[in-house]
Every structure is written in structure tokens, then in C-alpha cells.
Amino acid sequence: MNLDKFFSAKSIAIVGVSPEPAKVGHIIFSNFIDAKYGGSVYPVNPHIDKILGRKSYPSVLDIPEKVELAIIAVPAEASLKVVEQCGKKGIKDIVMVTAGFREVGNYELDRKLEKLLKKYRIRCVGPNCLGCFDAHTGLDTLFLPRSRLQRPGKGGIAFICQSGAVGSATMDLAAKEGYGFSKFVSYGNAMNVDETDILEYFGKDPQTRVICMYIEGMRDGKKFLRTASKISEKKPVIAIKGGVTSEGGRAILSHTGSLAGSAEVYFGAFRQAGVTKADTLQELFNYARIFDKSICACGPRIQVITNGGGYGILSTDSIIKSGLVMAKPSAMTLKELRRRHPKVVTSNPIDLLGDASTQMYRDAIELCLNDRNIDAIIVITLYQTPRLGTDVVGSIIELNKLSKKPIITVSTGGEFTRILKMEMEKNGIPSYDYPDEAVNSMKQLVEYCRGKGICK
Amino acid sequence: MNLDKFFSAKSIAIVGVSPEPAKVGHIIFSNFIDAKYGGSVYPVNPHIDKILGRKSYPSVLDIPEKVELAIIAVPAEASLKVVEQCGKKGIKDIVMVTAGFREVGNYELDRKLEKLLKKYRIRCVGPNCLGCFDAHTGLDTLFLPRSRLQRPGKGGIAFICQSGAVGSATMDLAAKEGYGFSKFVSYGNAMNVDETDILEYFGKDPQTRVICMYIEGMRDGKKFLRTASKISEKKPVIAIKGGVTSEGGRAILSHTGSLAGSAEVYFGAFRQAGVTKADTLQELFNYARIFDKSICACGPRIQVITNGGGYGILSTDSIIKSGLVMAKPSAMTLKELRRRHPKVVTSNPIDLLGDASTQMYRDAIELCLNDRNIDAIIVITLYQTPRLGTDVVGSIIELNKLSKKPIITVSTGGEFTRILKMEMEKNGIPSYDYPDEAVNSMKQLVEYCRGKGICK
Fold first, then answer.
1. CB–CB of B310 and A162 under 8 A?
2. What does the pLDDT profile of chain B (456 residues) look like in tens digits?
């Protein structure tokens, strides 16, 4: 399904732009103004003449130009008439923000909308959704004010989200953490554009490196399985399923009106399709971070380098519990490291101790990168120790750029640490707060890369 | 064991204060100066006359006053002589920051130190440790500069930590998140003051509400079991065990020289002693947050109130998976809520929908607080929605103050959200990032409160 217009339409009508600033249509329109969107944007409201200095149109039929995308934010009762007008105007793509359909038991309105969409061959994202966001083009139908929800910069993470809140709040958090997005869709009731259609489209999207999904229900499991299997060969797909318990499943009915289905069937499908399963939102975001930034790991043998012994021990426990393997660095690596830094604990973990210096990190990482017994490196940098120069960040970034093995980092701390973590992140290295987050994310990377034929 | 002097000594000697600012002794001394510590602080270094404008003493024996606590930060070889002098001076409490004992295989030095401590009846925190921090008195032996490791404010969380890095980095993070501490000890090799001695002392400490522990090894399990059982009746004890795998256990030997022991034995002891087990550092901190701030939950029946449907569903899944129970609010509660706000989804979760207002939250929470079918409430507030006033924070704080049930919150987001979360935290309500963090923390609270006879 060609969804180009949902992310880069050249002319857009927003139907239901109220003069009241807290109303949905108003926020959507002002987001386009604020973002200085590169296409024509037409506000539609028959009761006013002007809005934010722009001419308001009585209906989409009155817009002089061809319209490529309509965003509909009128009450449910009024929405069918608007869709009819869109059809007559020849608009083929609409985002239906309006709620009040299947999810509140209004099945009749549902059927009528479906019929109209069929009649005019309209692709519809929604109803009951936030719609679409594209960090690269600036198209943004999210009715959440920019002052409250920070939009992420341009990047490689895409999010397909049945629930608006789950996706948008995560995107807001990701933006704060310095992560860039490619595209975002909240598709709500999935009337005739569903998760799989969007997945397929994102699979081909050159800006998208990793695809995150939050799924409540699915109408066509086979279609998903077929598509996801294909896409996951090319780029990682991470999915979290809402309603994996029967109690959670019941709550879905009043949310997006979907049928939750059996969790086991979903998990089986994820496995079969090579989709990475996340059990929590935090996992979803953590996995997206490593997939977005890291190169493939060619095996499960992990080396830990640390300046805090306890962190080394907790990382080791976590690696073993996750099913990854503690690498056994070669005798040469350890001997050379000991020669250069006699006090260092040379095994795995390599413990550079509390007086670790940047040079010690450089040497340890470099030796491990050249050691064929090691597939990936988790570097723990606790920036609180007085001897460690802040240039350790630059050194690790530099080594990572030349590296053929993934390097990820762990640092826990306050403001001083936060700034250095951001620097690390901005330069392509995930910096997790806790050892187990890093290890479990690395585990997913190793699993994903396995059998992809990327390594020799 | 009376450990008063480790946290509020009136006269302190710091032995090994180098003029070089990055050296351990220097940092410790300047931390006391910066904190304007309320007692006398004497730097000791025979090679200099003055340091930071203060007279330096050749040895502790030259200090004119009685010394209550010595902090020793000289190299291992020189440390025994210093301890001998401390003994002669009549100092009964020392913090031995110095490393280079058992943990590097130097068992002989270990034995000599032990003998000396016995001879002079000296209590020793360390060696190979960061030592002590008291947020209330300002006593602070941590050799981590304040510019790099933020000290937390006064509060109720205590941390007993065998590894210096684990505790101090977590404390730094906690300080950033607005959490206050009572006391902190990194006790390293646990020569003659061990985790149980400190636990017992913290058990009696009126400023300490919750005790966190990071344990690598233990010499006297029975003593721990006996003490922890007693303390956990009065205040929650949360413990994380490092080295729960055999690989992790091996790493411990070169860290604090402890024997890791069988994880199952530890976990069994935790269970038996009423100690809350954390599997990760994040769990440890998350559990401390709810124990620090919340009143007891009198049962496992949880009500979820949300303005994001997907968050409600994920919370429900998490509650069921954790073994907690979804509360069944009374018909009266739901009827009254429906009467006031007809569009709201009234069951559990209560979904106030994307246009939730502060009044809707107030009404929903108030009704649930008065509902005898509900033991605790998880309130999800996604602040990104345009209709939700920021006064919702104040309203929840107000309701929580009068409440006899624990209320905790969940909010995910960027900068706008972060500020409101901090406001919530500052006023006694934990505000987690993700639903499962809140649910799993609530689970620990419910477990801890069970059978304590606090509820009728």
C-alpha cells in the first residue's frame, strides 16, 4: 500500500479547526504553522472566516487546489459528511482523528464509514487515533502541543502504534534522550490501513533503520506473518503486545475495539517472523536504541570492561542469565594489558579499578577489538571517579567508529554523568543506565544478527 | 555495634592528604571543607606544612585534641604504621579507604591489619572502600568529587554497599531524581565491621526509613538472618546479591575478596528474613522509592486510573503477571463516576480518555479512595494531552496527603513531563516512567505490608 501522502502530502486540508486553542483541530493546524510545513495547509471550518491569519474554508470542496491529504478532527456525528465531501473532492488519503466508533460500541457508524471509504477508494488512518508524524518532512497530525510533547529530531527509529498515548509518550521520552525518529503512526481502530500495511511501507522506507510496534489486536495474522518475515530480514522489528492477560484483553475492547487474541499465538508469530519481542515499554525503547546505533554482533561472546568492580559482577551475572557468553580474551590480550597497566584486573570483566584513566580504557578496548575471542564489548564508565578524564568519551567514540564489533556503554549517575552520556549517544553509542539494560539489549542484537550471514 | 562516630564524629583526622587535587586524600579533605562540616577536621601528611590553608600534622599523634574518627587514605604498605599510631592515639573508629589487601591476594597484610585492629580494639570500615556518608550531619569520606557525584539531600533512604561504585553511582542518580538519603556506607572487604553490623545500626537509626543493600559475600549468614529478621519487621530492607552465577562469583574474588556463596542460599535467607530481593539495580532503586514515600497497602487489589488506554492495558497485564489483583470497584463508585463524567470508561482501568481534565482525575481518585474494594491506586498521568491542567499534580498530592491507601503515579515523557514528575516526587508521590516499574514496586509494597498487622 502506498502511504507516501500520509508523510509528505504537498497539500493538506485540516477539517475541524476550532478557534479555541485547546481543541484538537486547532492544535493540529498550529503544529503545521509552527513546523513551517513545506506544503499548502488549508484549515476547514464553515463557522469562521479566518484562523491564525489564514483563510478558513467552509468545506474541502471549496479549496481551490487539489488536496492530497485530509486530516479530520470533527465530532463523530459530523464525520461521515466530511468523508463524503473528501470523496467528491477526489482526496484519496485521510487521517481520521475523530473517535466514537467501534471502540464505544457504535458499530453502525463504523459500517457506514467503511462503506464510504470503499465507495471513494479512500485510504484511512484511524479513526480514533493520533495519526502521522514524519521527522524528516515535518508532517505532524498529533494533537499534542509541542510545548508538552517534544518532537524528536531526524533519525532512524519508526513507531507503529495502535494506542496514541503509548507511542507519543515514548517518542517524547526518546526525544529528551536525544533519539531521532523517521516516522510515527498511531492507527487506532485500523479501519482500512492496518499495522501490516504500515509495516510494509516502513520496511521500504530508506530513512527507517528499526521499526517499533505496539499492537493490541490484529485482523489478519497471516498477512502480518508474511510481511514481518520479509521485513525483519532487512531491518529489525520490535513488537510489544498489549493485552497478554485475559484482564488486559478485556480492557482492549473499550480502547481500540480490537480482539486481543491469545498471547501465545502472537508470541509464536513474532518468533516465526523474526520479530524481537519486548515485554515492557522500557525494553522496547532499550532495544530500539541498540538496533538504531549498533552494527551487528557476530557472536555471543561478550567482554566487559569496567572501572567499578560491582558493576562488572552485576554485568557478568546478567550476561550469564541472558544466555550470552562471557568471552575468554586471549592470553596475548591479557598479557599485553598487564604489561601496560600492571594493577588492572585482567580477565573478564577487565576491572580498570577506581583510578582508571582514559588511556587505560583506550588500551583495554583496543586490545579487545583486536581479539578474535571477543564478539562485542560492554564498557562501563562510571564518570564519578576523579582520575577519569572526560576525554574518555571521545576516545570510546573514536574507537567505535573504526570498530567492526558493537560497543555499548553503561553509566549510572546524576547531572555530570547525564551530559557525558548524551555526548556518547549523539555520537552513535548507546549509553544505558544499568548493566542489565545493556546486557538484555545486547542479547537482542546478538539474536537478531544470528544467521543473517552478515558476519564471516 | 555502636557506629555513631562513623556518621557524626566531632573530631576527624584524615591521613594521607596530598596537595595534588586528583588524589584520594585531597578530595576527601576538600569535601569536608566544602560541606562546612560541623566538627574539627585535621589533615595529616608529614611532608607538608599546610593544605588548603589548614595546618597539616605529621601524624595523628601530633593532633592536640582527642580524635574520634580517622580516615586513612595512604598506600597499603604505609597503612599499618598509621593504624598503629591511631591505636596509640586512642582512636577507636577508622575508615580505611586504602586498597591492596585480600582483594589482590595480599592475605599477609590482611592478617597484620586484623591483628592490629584487635590489639587496639578499633572498629574499621574497609579496607578497600569508599567509607561513609551522612546527609544529615554532612560527614562524607567519599573520594568522589562533588562536581562529579552529586550528594543527595536529607531523606530516609540508607544504602549499605560492599562495592563503592554500585552505591555511589546509584546515590548520584537518586540525587538527580530528587531522592534524599539518610546514611551510606561502602564497606569493602568488611574486615571487622560487616553488612550486618551496619544493618543493625541503621535499623535503630530514626532518620532511616528504608535500607538498601548490595552484597557480594557474607562471613556470618546466621548473624545476618537473625538481625535482618528483626529489622525488617520495623522497616523494609531491600537487597541485591552480586555474583549469583558462578562466573559472577569468580569476579567477586578479585573485587572484595569475598566468597560469593550459593545464590539460592542467599535468596532463601532473604525470604526467611523478610528482606525484599531486587534482581537489578533499577529494581533496588524503584523499590526504595515506594518504600521511602508510600504508606502501607492493606491488600493486593489495585485500581488503575489512566488518560491513555494503552497504558491502562499494559498496567493491567503487568498487575496480573505480578500476582497482584485488579480491584473490582463497587457499582456505586462506577455509577457516580459515570454520572459526573458520562464519556469515561468506568471499570478497571478507569480510562478518563485523551481529554481528561484535573476535575476528572480528582473525582476518579476520590471515589476510589472511598471504595472498600480497592487497596491501592496506580494513577497514570500523561501530561502531553492538551486538556489536562498542570494543577492535576497539586490535586493528586492533596488527595494523597489525606489518603489511607497508597497512591503512586506513572508518567512517560520529555522535559515538560520531567518537571511535573519532580513536583510529584518532591511531595511524597513516586512517579515512575513505565507501568511495569510502578506495578512491580507496588507488588513489593503489598508483600512487605502483608501480615505486619498494620491494617485492620
1. yes
2. 999 999 999 999 999 999 999 899 999 999 999 889 999 999 999 999 999 999 999 999 999 999 999 999 999 999 999 999 999 999 999 999 999 999 888 999 999 999 999 999 999 999 999 999 999 999 999 999 999 999 999 999 999 998 889 999 999 999 999 899 999 999 999 999 999 999 999 999 999 999 999 999 888 889 999 999 999 999 999 999 999 999 998 888 777 777 767 899 999 999 999 999 999 999 999 999 999 999 999 999 999 999 999 999 999 999 999 999 999 999 999 999 999 999 998 899 999 998 899 999 999 999 999 999 999 999 999 999 989 999 999 999 999 999 999 999 999 999 999 999 999 999 999 999 999 999 999 999 999 999 787 775
Can you give the residue ranges of every domain in chain A?
1-128, 149-292, 296-451
ipTM: 0.94
Residues in Cβ contact with B445 at an 8 Å cutoff, skipping those fewer than 6 apart: B290, B291, B294, B296, B297, B376, B406
Nearest to B384 among A168, A255, A256 (CB): A168
- Chain A residue with the nearest C-alpha to that of B21: A386
Q: What is the CATH number of domain B296-451?
A: 3.40.50.261
Select from A245, A318, A351 the Cβ nearest to the Cβ of B317.
A245
Q: In angstroms, rounded to a whole number, what is the distance separating the alpha carbons of residues B307 and B40? A: 55
Which residues of chain B lie closer than 8 angstroms to A345, CB-CB? Answer: 254-255
- Rounded to two decimals, the pTM is 0.95
Domain A149-292 in the same topology as domain A1-128: yes
Domain A1-128 architecture: 3-Layer(aba) Sandwich (3.40)
Contact list, A282 vs chain B (CB under 8 Å): 433-434, 436-437
Chain B contact present for A339, CB below 8 A: no
- Cα separation values, B265 from A273, B160, B163, B284, Å: 41, 20, 21, 20
Kindly report the three-state secondary structure assignment for every residue of B283-341.
HHHHHHHHHHHCCCCCCCEEEEEECCHHHHHHHHHHHHHHCCEECCCCHHHHHHHHHHC
Q: Are strands A93-96 and A69-72 parallel, antiparallel or unpaired?
A: parallel
CATH superfamily, with its number, for domain B149-292: Succinyl-CoA synthetase domains (3.40.50.261)
Q: Do A313 and B163 touch (CB under 8 A)?
A: yes
* Mutation for testing the A interface, residue in B285, B303, B314 having most A CBs under 10 Å: B314
**Contact residues, chain A, for B387 at CB < 8 Å:** 22
